[in-house]
């Protein structure tokens, strides 16, 4: 049950940096936006995910600002992404960590919604589990996300292999791409639109027999 | 890949009734609303589902109206529900046909959205596959559907057994309910809100190991 919009997950980040409560809150909110809110195992949002940032101030009395605060924010972003990625990577039975990049969207929310729809598609997740470079499942999931875009301007690569360009499938060696998916635990899906400049990176796990066993056999 | 909003499914209904094109279209639209648009296997909408109604008029030259048209509409509704139900019942690897009734919603769209969210939850579907009367997964899926309702006024029954009443779990014999889920191919989930009088019935299949095998091993 992982699709945190802050729900069963408990995350605690500690720092000795001095931060005012307001700055700590806004720094964490910004970091969470592109990390914990960009992951999904099966999209079933829980009711009690939490990420806390505790700042002791032991490193110095003066609250961070300017360049130092920017450096802190950057480190916090990186840390949250690292922690967030571990969740789908360690997803129930997961055999692939799938990174979905949406580029060229009109807004970041558009990009996130397309990414989430692809990430939560059981057909996309089972295709990756089976090493199937199934561009149709990915492109059609983007299509039903409810975000308008020009279908004739869509490019798709999987693990760097172009599968779909300007709205049409391209010739590719399915065996080579399939072998690349099977050989790597990490799968990269990059979908590029021509609607704007907004982008997002989203992480999910594949869906395989072990996930079903885990969740069908587990009784409350 | 079944979550038709009219997408890969092809349905053809034929009748010898006389119908004007306008009446045939509106009768079919009404019937589809509560049948083909109330099913989902995994929520991945396809791009070419179609339902056609062909009326030859061989039964009589006069287009149906009044009581006769009402009788035709009622038969058409029943037929479309029967056909639509067969899709999740025959879903890839499905071992349960799950009927989800949402009652007491503010609007029919609210009810449909809650039903669809429950139907598309991999955690709900795996629980039913495993015979797990997991009220928490069902209620939490309703909660994240994005439709506001008072959580303290929710009742839930599974196969007629009350599991949750007025927002809290009730004591039930988990073994009895589990045995009932396992013994029946059809599972009934009834979620009652206290927001209004709108209701919907929605059908889906469970999610088991066979679904994953089918979709992971199938290559385009």
Question: Could you characterize the architecture of this molecule?
Answer:
Two copies of one chain form a homodimer. Chain A is of the alpha/beta class. Chain A has seven helices and nine strands, in the order E-H-E-E-H-E-H-H-H-E-E-E-H-E-E-H. In chain A, strands 2-9-4-8-5-6-7 form a seven-stranded mixed beta sheet. Helices cover 39% and strands 22% of the residues of chain A. The first copy, chain A, starts with 9 loop residues before the first strand and ends with a helix. The A-B interface holds A 1, 3, 5, 42-47, 121-124, 126-127, 129-130, 132, 134, 136-137, 140-141, 143-144, 174, 178, 207-209, 211-213, 215-220 and B 1, 3, 5, 42-47, 121-124, 126-127, 129-130, 132, 134, 136-137, 140-141, 143-144, 174, 178, 207-209, 211-213, 215-220.
- Discrete helix count of chain A: 7
The helicity of chain A comes to: 25-40%
Report strand order across the widest sheet of chain A.
2-9-4-8-5-6-7
Order of helices and strands of chain A: EHEEHEHHHEEEHEEH
Averaged pLDDT of chain A: 90
**Low-confidence spans of chain A:** none
Summing up helix and strand content along with how strands pair, one would put the structural category of chain A as alpha/beta
Strand residue percentage of chain A:
15-25%
What is the CA-CA span between the terminal residues of chain A?
Answer: 13 Å
This entry's quaternary arrangement is homodimer
Largest interface between protein chains, with number of residues from each side? A-B, 39 and 39 residues
Largest pleated sheet of chain A: 7 strands, mixed
What's the count of strands of chain A?
A: 9
Radius of gyration of chain A equals 19 Å
Envelope shape of chain A: globular
């Amino acid at each position: 049950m992982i699709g945190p919009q802050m729900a069963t997950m408990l995350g605690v980040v500690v720092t000795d940096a001095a931060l005012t409560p307001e700055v700590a809150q806004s720094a964490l909110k910004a970091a969470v936006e592109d990390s914990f809110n960009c992951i999904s195992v099966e999209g079933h949002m829980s009711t009690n995910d939490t990420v806390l940032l505790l700042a002791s101030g032991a490193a110095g009395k003066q609250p961070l600002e300017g360049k130092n605060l920017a450096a802190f924010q950057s480190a916090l972003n990186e840390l949250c992404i690292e922690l967030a990625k571990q969740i789908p990577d360690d997803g129930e039975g997961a055999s692939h960590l799938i990174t979905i990049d949406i580029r060229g969207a009109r807004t970041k929310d558009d990009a996130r919604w397309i990414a989430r729809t692809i990430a939560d598609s059981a057909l996309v997740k089972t295709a990756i589990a089976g090493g199937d470079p199934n561009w149709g499942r990915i492109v059609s999931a983007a299509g039903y996300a409810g975000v308008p875009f020009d279908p004739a301007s869509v490019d798709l690569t999987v693990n760097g292999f172009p599968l779909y360009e300007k709205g049409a499938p391209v010739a590719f060696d399915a065996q080579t791409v399939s072998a690349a998916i099977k050989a790597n635990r990490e799968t990269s899906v990059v979908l590029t639109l021509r609607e704007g400049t907004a982008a997002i990176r989203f992480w999910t796990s594949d869906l395989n027999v072990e996930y079903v066993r885990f969740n069908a056999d587990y009784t409350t």
